[in-house]
Structure formats: structure tokens, C-alpha cells
Amino acid sequence: MTWLHHIVFVNDQNQKLFYQSQQQSNDVSLKDVSPYFLKSIVAIEDHRFYEHRGFDPVGILRALKANISEQGNVEGASTISQQYARLMFLNNDKTWSRKIQEAFLTVRLEAHYNKDTILQGYINTVYFGHGIYGIENASLYYFNKEPRDLDLNEASMLAGVINGPEYYSPFKDLKAAKSRQKIVLDALVEQNQITQKEADQTYQTEIQLNP
Q1: CA 66 to chain centre
Q2: Among candidates 23, 24, 34, 64, which has minimal Cα distance to 158?
Q3: What does the CA dihedral 188, 192, 193, 195 come to, rounded to 10 degrees?
């Protein structure tokens, strides 16, 4: 598996091309992204990201429990590694064939890349709505800021958008975006990334969107 001009290639055991990514990324390094956003995206999308090897049975059970208790889609069951494999190589067809391909590619990603590399690829390719892909484009579009300059309010809002850009874009429905942001902030508190006071103050602070 190799990178070339931000395109990911996966080779088979004979070193022949097996998969090629369907999209390119604007590769922004993790060091150039606000720690608030990195913590937020891991907290809400895959809080055991640095512990599992691509698949997280604990996370699946947790997601099912949370979604049942909230009677809605609060947490996703896919890990960041699975989502990244799907983003780069596959479509969203809910077929067994696609799921098998996703599992294979997730194993390959985890075998060949460290966690930071996978996370970097993910945040540079994930969809934020309005035709916007990647954290750099999203940061500029929503807040007219570079990713490194996002504060906790902005970062937690953006991390929430990913779950459903059509529903949680603050440009489309600010109330829904704030509701999703609260779930992100609560996850950060639960994982001891921020205090409850910080979460409360952030949630109560008006968000300044790009005019």
C-alpha cells in the first residue's frame, strides 16, 4: 500500500494494483490542525481509535446501546479506520460484498499505516456538507479560519457535522447543529478531555460563522 500525490494504492500479495482511491485529499498535517478538533473527532467518531486494530466490538455494543437509549442515530458503529477505507475506495452500498471489501481494506490500512497517518487521511477526506471535503476546506468554509486556529466551540461543532452534514450543518439548521455539538462536548467530558465547566461554557457561547 502506497501514497502518491495524496492518492492511496493497495497492492495484492503479488504487488499488483488491487485498489486505487477514488478521491484525493488536500493533506493537512495533524500538527497543523487544532488539538480541539482532533480530540473532538476521535471522541465522537471512535473514542477507542488508538486502542483497537481497525474493528471495535466494544464500540459497536456501545453505539447500539446509545442509539437505542436515545432513540436515534447518536453514535456510529464504524471505526475511523473503517470509515476511511470506505471513503477512499468504496461506495455506500449496503451489500455484503461491499462490507467484505471494507473489512479487507481496513485490515490492510491498519497493517501498513500507524494511527496518526490514518487519522490524518481521514480528516482530509471526510465530507462536511455543502460540497466540502477535508478539514482545511471545512474550516475555511464554516469559520474563515485555518484548521490550526479552531477553538473548542468551532472544533466541536465541525466534529458534529460529519455524522450527518445534511442535518447538522449550522448553515442549514443551527439548532440541530448545537444539539449535535452538545453530544460531542459530552463525549469529551466523559473521556476526560475537557471539564464539565468548559463544556457548559462552550455550549452557551454563540458560534461565529463565516458570513
Answers
A1: 18
A2: 34
A3: 80
User: Is residue 108 within 8 Å of residue 175, measured between CB atoms?
Assistant: no
Nearest to 76 by CA among 186, 177, 184, 4: 184
pLDDT tens across 81-123, in order? Answer: 888 888 876 556 555 555 666 677 777 878 788 999 999 999 9
Q: All 3 cell numbers of residue 94?
A: 449496503
Cα gap 79→123, rounded to integer Å: 13
pLDDT at 187 over 90: yes
Mutual angle of helices 152-161 and 196-204, in 10-degree steps:
80
b/e 82-105 (16+ beta carbons within 10 angstroms → b): bbbbbbbbbeeeeeeeeeebbeeb
Query: What angle in degrees, to the nearest 10, is found between the helix axes of 174-190 and 196-204?
Result: 170
Does residue 205 contact residue 183 with C-beta atoms inside 8 Å? Answer: no
What is the model's pTM? 0.77
In single-letter form, the type of residue at position 122 comes to Y
- Report the alpha-carbon distance of residue 210 to residue 185 in Å, rounded: 22
Rounded distance between C-alpha atoms, residue 140 and residue 35, angstroms: 17
10 Å CB burial of residue 14 (0-12, 13-18, 19+) is exposed
DSSP 148: G
